[in-house]
Amino acid sequence: MKKIILLTAIFSLSFICLAGQSKIQPLHLELFCDFSDISKADDSQKTGGLKISTPLMEIKTANKKDKHNLGLCFSTERFIKQFPVEIKYGNLSGGGSLAKLHSPELSSGTSPFNSGQINTGALSASLPGYSGFSKPESIFAQMKLKQFSDSPFSFCLNTWISPDYSSPVLSAIISDKFFSRQLILNASCTAGKFFYDANSSSSWFLDSPYYHEDSHYCSLYQLSAEYKSKNGKAGFFAGFTTAFYETPFGPYNSVYRADVKLTIKKTELYSSAFINPCEDLLTSSGKKLTPSCQFKAGLLTKKPLITKNTNLIFIKFGLNLYSRINLTDSTHPFRINSGIQLSSDLTSLSLSFSDSFNLHSPSPVLAPDEIKNSSINIQIKNSWYFKLVNPSLLLSAETKFNEENSSGSNANPVKYKIQLSTTNNTKHKIGSTFTIAFSSIENRITDKKFSAALNCKMNFKALSFTGKVSFEADLDKGE
Fold it and tell me: Residue 317: which H helix or E strand, with range?
């Protein structure tokens, strides 16, 4: 490990002189400390780290009691534009198309302002953060080919070697633009061999058969096309995704997904569909998917309001519907998300509402004949943008129906959350967050919790210092 750090430092220093001749900052050092919960005396709650950045290299490390993270990044992006190469080593986290291969289903989030759609992408890896210490040491390499001709064609090839996977994970993405760059076509592929655990919860008498732990081949393929008019007021996006998963018994299972979005001025209409016709499908992360058809559709629109003041006020409205039809179950979830937002240069005020239902049918092959409300979520957020400070207030309430609480009562508890946050607009950033959460049931207040966090980042020319202090308290214990 010491040899790797020393070699990294030698390469970095060799390019500091090269960067010094240009406008690129040759060296930057960032120090970090985190006291996750100052109410606890345990040293395991304290984290320290640093990041050294040069035009060619980046070193990032974090240390906690009996735990450590290390990340190294070598990139020629700033010096070789036509053929950039990037290599990363350390406790890396994967993302991009790998996340879609792990979990290909639609997002069932409650935000009315997020479509949940995905774009065609390749495998990505990021250096470790300052909080998670569960990733093994791995290697990521990326090579790009672009700007070799007048055509805006680009090709990217990635590979990731990790002990979490049985073989290297490979991905490639091709992108090209046509008709004065109004039409963009993308195609990508991600594939690898992944471990899975034994199905020990099954037996010979259950429908799900037993199998030993082993590895299986999984692959993801994506195609997309995006068109924008010359004036930028209209656009269309269409994407198709399919994933293949080798079963523990040899054959392959497959899932399919489609995303469509139409943009007309400040209005977006979007829809997504997902289908998994296979039972006990095992993804690359070991997650089991049941047979289902999923749908999501919605709209987002933003309009300016004409006022006597010179500052413009915009109103934004979002609405989406999510449905999951289980092919082997008689209960089908359904959700409606809606929200409205007023925003200007001075403030932003939003109100969102989410209502979830369960559709029940006598059997999986029959149509639903009963609907029950499962949960309701309401959220209000107000942010202000002043010259020196930006405060924001968040209020939320959520209740779940037909859920027995800890006292054995069938009354529906309501969970409340009040959060106040502030950030400043000066060179040195200071932010704070105060959160109060509690539940109300049968006119009683329970589960009272308080948390506070203070973030500070001091920025200098070649040095920045980031510190975080947090505090949590269970107010019920004090009674």
Answer: strand 313-326
Residue 381 near residue 374 (C-beta atoms within 8 A) = no
Give tens-digit pLDDT for 8-39: 444 444 444 444 444 556 788 999 888 876 66
Burial class (CB in 10 A: 0-12, 13-18, 19+), 263: buried
Whether residue 39 contacts residue 473, with contact meaning beta carbons closer than 8 Å, is answered with yes
For residue 66, count other CB atoms closer than 10 A to its CB.
8
Q: pTM to 2 decimals? A: 0.85
pLDDT tens figures, 253-264: 999 999 999 999
Q: What is the DSSP letter of 43?
A: G
> From residue 93, how far is each of 53, 129, 134, 250, 359 by CA, in Å?
19, 9, 10, 30, 38
The domain locations on the chain are: 1-79, 386-479
- The answer to whether 339 and 318 are in contact (CB under 8 A) is yes
- Residue 145 neighbours by CB under 8 Å, 6+ apart: 82, 83, 154, 155, 156
- Provide the H-helix boundaries in 50-141: 97-102
Q: How far is CA 255 from CA 13, 184, 199, 221, 281, in A?
A: 49, 25, 21, 11, 9
Cα(406)–Cα(386) distance, rounded to whole angstroms?
44
Reading the block at residue 36, the tokens are 């996750």
The closest of 86, 91, 4, 11 to 49, measured between CA atoms, is 91
Contact by Cβ (8 Å): 208, 229? no
Q: Which amino acid is at 163?
A: P
